[in-house]
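Deliverable D4.2, example record:
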Amino acid sequence: MKKLLYSLSLLLCSPCWATWTLTQGPSTAINNACATGSTTCAVTVSSTGSSHLLVAGIASTANGTTISSVTSAACSVTWTHASSANLAGSAGSVDLYYCTKSASGQTSITITVNAAPGAAWTAAIWEASSSLGTIAIDSGATPSGNKNDSSNCTSCAGVSLTLSGNNDFIAAIATPGDTGTGLTGTGWTNDKVDASTNLYGHGITSGSQTAPATWTQTTANPLLCDAAAFQETSGTVAPAGFNKKRKIEKMDGI
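Output generated by the structure prediction step:
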């Protein structure tokens, strides 16, 4: 009986480390080429859901561009700057803001930057839902950060994150010194290579991925990148070696 109850408790708890779903993300529709010299950029999105994660990102070939605000009506709590996300280096600028509880019914989200960039810039929105419904920045030691790879790379390692081991949604963005071709790595999706060759992607982890494996560009140049990870806050780390099928099989003969 104890074995049966233990097996059932594990099965009932499986949502405690449940899953993420990308509702919408950077693509032809959810990504906007923003006007040179403009401090605002409106990104058209499909109607947002309630209590989802929203991540706003910008990439620019101009130095010193940072996000100063995002449409407040789209967030039921407050927009927050991802720690250490902004980076202005030789290849340009990247930045990320996030909202852990979206407001429903938004179809346009405006990103405002600190000053009018003197070069092309792009803006993008990710929306992701958690099967547990409660979302926060990952509780690991380094849930977000940036990297300025000035080594003139063609295959450039992404931001190294130290995470909690929960299932995470990770938003990632890069601006290359040359034509970018995207990101590669197990568990990662290359969302968009936009007209200005800025790069957007995301990962949905099972507690193992820590950063995009590789950003690529056609010739050796510097590359800037950002990443930020988010967890389901009522989740727990899945036990090592946990296998639902094996637990069910162990119930036979109890």
